[in-house]
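Dear colleagues,

As part of the handover before I leave the project, I'm documenting each prediction I ran so the next person doesn't have to rerun anything. This entry is a single chain, and its sequence is reproduced below.
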Amino acid sequence: MKNLAALFLVLFVCIASAQTVPAGCQNIIWQGAVPDGVTDNTAAWNAAVRASDPNQICVYFPPGHYRFAWPMAYTFQTAAASSITILGAGQDITNLEFSLANAPGIAIGVTSAFNSVHIRDLTVAAKMAQGSQGILLSSSEVTNPNPANTAPSDVINVTVRGSDGYIVNNGWQYDVYLYTVSNINFINDNFLGPYTSTAVQLVGTATNIGVVYNFIGDTFNGTNYGITYGQYIQGVTVVNSNFNGNQNGIYSPPGGDGEDQLTVLSSQFNAAQNGILLQSPIEATMIEGNFFLVNNNSAGINLQNYAGAVISGNYFSPAVLPAVNQIGVKFSSYASQASIVGNNVFQQITTPIVLSPTSQYVNVQSNAYWRNINPNSNAGTNNTLGGGSQ
């Protein structure tokens, strides 16, 4: 039986080697990779990188399970326009599995605003509980005077999870960790727990601000935090995405600085604590056209520190009944600028809108209310509660 299994593996590798490889790409099989989930493929990865065009590195992984005893690491060697592309045959079809504890899976070091990273059509899996970062993109640039003027990168059709399944025991502390790398599109990705993890961590610095992150059609499932909006991050847009079973969907921790421009559109939230929790003010926050399932002792949108927010056209509904301490929208400490809550629907939750004593300059107008337990609460100053069906 062992000889038969070995024969099948040889045949599989031969078939994979014969597959059509995207133009300009190295097939990892050509460099000796074995997709059996056991063999260490670190040497094959390094060989494939060396065999690539140094300005346009591209490595293709056919279907299979590729184990790595070390991170798939690469640092750009030039400040000129250059890219690295890691391609698979599809999510959960190409599986990159990492077994080194307290280490990242894919680790790319960016050295210039002209470097770009493209990771597509594969799964990044941790073969241990609480691995470090599934995908780590970090820039060594100390200063970037115009971070928006950088080469675009993307993570498309990628699943990041534990190797033992969907939210079981294995997983990453951070599915994706970005440090001062700007201009990234996340499209049709699937980020999974276990529950103590963070799906996507965004971090910038005062001299190299992180800007322009678009999340389109992504799923954030079973993590402690879905997207963490760290220091000096600006221009985050979340569209048509789902946050399910998280403790907090979108999160800004306290003590933040230099955070601007959060837009959340046409997405769905079902979080145990808060769909959106901002503990630092993010100027120009727009939350429009989303669906919030509100759990007991939780809030759909919880702005503990705010600096101008537009909350419009959202639908708030109970995740469980009877509703116990469910809040649709809560405003706490005012930092600057006026905010508006209008044209939303609140139905069957405990309290639709809570304006705390430290809130100011919130205009509540033209919302629809149906069978909520309590009316809106306004303990702040300079707030306006206008019309709407209560």
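The longest strand covers residues 115-126. The two ends are 72 Å apart (CA to CA).

All the best with the project,
I.
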